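dumping this here before i forget
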Amino acid sequence: MFTIFQYFPLLFLVALTQLVTSILVQLGLVLLLLPGIYFYVASSFALMLVADRKMTPISAIILSCRVFNAYWTQISAIFGVFVLLFASVPLTLGFSLIWVLPFYFSMMGLLYQELVGQQGLRTDASVTDVKESSFDA
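structure:
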């Protein structure tokens, strides 16, 4: 059964991963603008990898960068669209955040599912047991 406290033991690892990626992005932005932007986009799956696959922070960051390097054109195009969408926020006095933020987080979840995959196994209802059913959305 899914509970919200399932990820509580991973809280320290997720916070450490966020701290490491934030430091690296800030260093990249201070040195030159492009490395900071690259590392921000390349490490976008690191937190999800720590929570989903229970990886260490460094291995999650490395795997996230490898996934980004494999699909950099498509992911960069998606992030470019989101830069344009987030640019509309001041023009609408913040009202477009109602649509843009859920779309952004849903898209990041879908990208993670498609590019990295899921670790768990899919369970279907048995054909012989008539009293049980499943809903696969």
